Amino acid sequence: MAAHQHILLLLALFLVCMGQVLANDRREEWIAALSKLPGLENRFDLGDDVVEEDDDGGDVMGEVPSEFFSYGSSYNLQEPYSVYGQSVEGEAAAVHPDNGTAELRMPNVHPTKPNEYFCHSERMPADQGVYIVGFSPVTTEGTAHHILIYGCKAPGSYAEKSWNCGEMDMAEDELQEDTAPPCETESKILYAWAMDAPPLQLPKAVGFEVGADTGINYLVLQVHYAKVDKFKDGSTDNSGVALTWTTEPQPLRAGVYFMGSDGEIPGKSKDIHLEAACTYEGPQVMHPFAYRVHTHKLGEVVSGYRVRDGTWTEIGKRSPQLPQMFTPIDKDISILPGDDLAMRCTYASDREETTFIGMTGDDEMCNFYIMYYTTEDSLPDDDVCYGNGKYKWSLSFSKTPDKEASSLVSDAQANSM
Question: Distance (Å, rounded) from C-alpha 301 to C-alpha 319?
């Protein structure tokens, strides 16, 4: 799809530019938070964008000496939707420039039923690691309920375009041959977006490494379409995420530790808690630098903690009714082997019926994401902690920040290091 042939490209460029504006609005907040973390000191030099002229006389973005990774001119997606602009056949790696941006987007899917989940995969280079250092959602208001990017050793399907990956929401007799999970093996969450959250740029020196021998051979884009009214006229969607990436090795490897819980919220109830806790077994030391919360309509507060020697340290806490962005952590928190990680979702319901954790927009979810970096060459194998819906913190801990965990007002003792 050549840039001079389609007006849609102008819209895509506009969205990317708007994403940069939103990201720059958060620059001061990110600098203040991230410059305090070990390994990131003195990495944040503010500067003005450098605009250069390309061979055709147009403007391109030059190096940007800021807390964001400095990258060159945009590298735009071409058919058939390869992340690096061309297909990768077999084990051969695509040819790509040293750095740039590329779009991982749905190949014009047509949702027909509410709460459909579609997945689309892209093969990563086999001969060289690539580092993702920024994420900018590309979608229109009211289209995608939420978007996830998984890193997979093998995708759930090798469908050429896309596949239905909402099998958890379907009865057994409704399952179709083209229905499969996002990943067949070794699934890792790299990014999550919902509720009009702004773009995310990682701090300099931090990146998600994919491809080569990382075990992330594919990126899988998952989009949840809660409503399909806008598609009744036969229109299609290509929502997705614009990725900022580089082949320059980043000394600090990024990862996401996911926490969640199953369970139910009774009708006409308030102050209902779903909780989870797990012991981190490492061996890598994790340094959280951002967190994200996720529920649906009934969630009031989601909070996450590190517990060490009986002391609860707040990692993050936020209302899930706000834009569900990755929020920077403004203090130095290390997670060592043997530390416990705990999370809680607090709900209130004015519904008559019980609401269950599930896949649809009318169900609920209880998720807490910890985005971290490590100085090690590998990431933890065990990066998921999930409660069964009946678990309570009181089963594992004698003292808990019970009131503070369900309030948006932090408690000084609970936040002590």
Answer: 5
Candidates 55, 13, 72; CA nearest to 247 is 72
β-sheet bridge partners, residue 151: 188, 219
User: Is a pLDDT exceeding 80 seen at residue 46?
Assistant: no
Give backbone dihedrals phi and psi of 399, rounded to 5 degrees, phi first.
-135, 125
pTM of the full predicted structure? Answer: 0.70
Identity of the amino acid at 285: V
Q: Which residue has the tokens 């607090």?
A: 346
> Residue 4's Cα: distance from chain center in Å?
32
pLDDT tens for 121-160 read 999 988 888 999 999 888 877 788 788 899 999 999 988 7
Which segments of 237-380 does DSSP mark as H helices, in order?
A: none
Q: Which residue has the higher pLDDT, 222 or 174?
A: 222
Name the average pLDDT for the chain: 75
Query: What proportions of the chain, in percent to the nearest 5, are helix, strand and coil?
Result: 10, 40, 50
| Pair 61, 238: CB distance under 8 Å | no
- The residues, ordered by sequence, that sit 6+ positions from 4 with a Cβ below 8 Å of its Cβ are none
CB 307 within 8 A of CB 339: yes
Read off the tokens for 49. Answer: 């964008």
Based on its alpha-carbon atoms, the radius of gyration of the chain, rounded to whole angstroms, reads 21
CA–CA separation, 40 vs 152, rounded Å? Answer: 28
User: Tens of pLDDT along 273-326?
Assistant: 999 999 999 899 999 999 999 999 999 999 999 999 999 999 999 999 988 788
Four-CA torsion 412, 370, 325, 152, nearest 10 degrees: 180
For the annotated catalytic residues, the residue numbers are 145-146, 222, 224, 294, 296, 365
**CA nearest 355: which of 233, 273, 267?**
267
Tell which residue, 242, 238, 217, has the closest CA to residue 155. Answer: 217
DSSP secondary-structure letter at 362? T
User: Rounded to an integer, what distance in angstroms lies between the CA atom of residue 128 and that of residue 336?
Assistant: 30
